[in-house]
């Protein structure tokens, strides 16, 4: 009957290359194996000339063969397990889509037909009732399947997919996907996705980039639709986290009708853009076979003599991408992918699966329509064919071992895709088991009722599948959320390759679902192996190099690019990519490279350093000299040279000079409250007494000569009373000024942290700078008065007239203190104190030397001049 109907309708047999793998059962699962076989012209074909199209040869993606074996292994386990679906046998029918829509439609139609005849809506037998389809690796293939399944309203429930951006008609079917695509509910259709939601994958990639502080990212995307979804999700989030796209390249930019020259030019341009970009982190986002194109791009480009050799890059791959090789890529170096990071669907080792693979060979799986082509491609051999004559090259014996194949061709451990297929089969089985269990609890089933249940009641599968929850044989829990998305996360995988074409995928982190963003992502940096180009250091991926400590960033366009500028004087930055430099705390200062803060050393003018020792020795030496002069004058107390110009003023002057030299010691050593109160006040009061004595001596000398004139009325002013009054009054004024100073704003110990960059200077804060300069100004006023009077009296005729010496001494004194003010204000730190000490010593020493040196010379070396006759003769 079936054959007759088929003949009348003119339905053809399946395509001669249409590989399949079939096993009968009461219920069957349909499997669409996407890209198990690849006609490489579908990956890329081009026109060599306007009238000639060049196609690459027919090849097999050998690694995908494990996917169909995972489905077979799961069904065998279920059929051997009396606890699941007892008395019901599951079968399967696996077809290949060849990544072409027409063959996908043909494979899907074949699942509804009888005995490989494509005759929809009619079946001759009661077996092989289709309950679900599992497939495929590519979203377009899954959509093609959904387009066909949406037409049928058969009693059996078929699992079919609906992709996020497709508007489908209402379906009464569901599809279990094992490609990471987002979920969309369209009317009554339920979609069951065997990988986490795509947004979780986007977020995982984003958090991975943020974790390693990569700010300049290149993106290669397989098609426009994927690129647009990626851009929409990532653009705002990249911007919020300071990440920019160096480039986004869509591989679909080059059409299939391009000439060979145009294709080569496009490939070279893309290769140059990747290798010349400062973006070392490159995101590869596409379907399962996208990695084959990337390998083709890198391999073809590096063969060109004019193109630079590939640099190390960090390839960040989406979860659906696996390292696969076709026969032509057998010898291609995979080291370029060393250190790649990818999100990966969780997988686990299943007991018995490795042994199942080891038992696989062409002679033990005759019903497998895929195995011979897989075997020939994987082991680079050929099976004898009598119709083709003698075979050249290696002959396939069937005794080859799968475990001897490189990992890029076939892995003995279960991949993430295969693991999802395994769980998908068990999810359907558990949902069916739940249906049959609920029926058996109400009444015992007769054989006829069992047939009705198998063929008419499976519409309830949706309700049970939505709530399915079980632990698989590896101990992992499998369940779906309210949107039909499996509850699972991603692993973060580091690809480690070896020169012998083998590689391992090392788990270095994870991206969990249904937890907060802060807790979802984790990674162990220490376990990551980077590409050799980076010398095992974490790669940099910036528009330009880091701004290292000591520099800050100056933005330019685009926003992820910037210039590095040196920190201003006194500022520093201690981490990379500082936006602004900042100052150290007051007790620290920037080092020479301006990348750290160094504690300032505490300093003051101490007795333990050469400068302090030298000034102290000078002060004591001058004090000793002054004391010797005073002793000499005391010894010659009654000589004319001592009596001349008021002997008491001379003694007062010498004593005040002696104290001036000693007050220098108050300026040396660590300041404290007492020394700060005494040092300036003692110095200015003693100095005021000294200058007052000089002024009194000068005035006394002038009045004495004026009093010698006949009829002069100045005699009454000549004497000790006037001199003492001058000294006392002038000194008391200074004492009054100091009293006001001490009572209003007295000096106090202070730490000067800003005068010297590298030092904290312990010094006396003068309290009120105005009062400080007032006392200095008053002292200067006395000095100027003394200088003026002495200058006017410099030519008075007397051997012992001091006016000339006082004039010169006051000239030295005024010069010292006039230069003191600008020098003091321009000096910082402890050297301010040294300047003041030097000024005290210089002016005091100038007074001592100019006024008393000649007198000491006469008393010691020319005593004959120290007599009254000499004084009278000179006066006349």
Explain what the structure shows:
With 876 residues, the protein is of the alpha/beta class. It has an 8-stranded mixed β-sheet with strand order 12-11-13-14-15-18-19-20, sandwiched between helices. It has a 4-stranded mixed β-sheet with strand order 1-7-2-8, sandwiched between helices. The chain has a 3-stranded mixed β-sheet with strand order 27-29-28. The relative contact order is 0.07. Helices cover 42% and strands 15% of the residues. It has 24 helices and 29 strands. It folds into 4 domains: 2-197 and 418-479, 3-Layer(aba) Sandwich (Rossmann fold), CATH 3.40.50.2300; 199-346, Response regulator (Rossmann fold), CATH 3.40.50; 551-599; 610-799, Up-down Bundle (Rhopdopsin 7-helix transmembrane proteins). α19 (673-707) runs antiparallel to α20, α19 packs parallel to α21 (769-792) and α22 packs antiparallel against α23. Residues 1-17, 35-58 and 153-189 have low confidence and may be disordered.
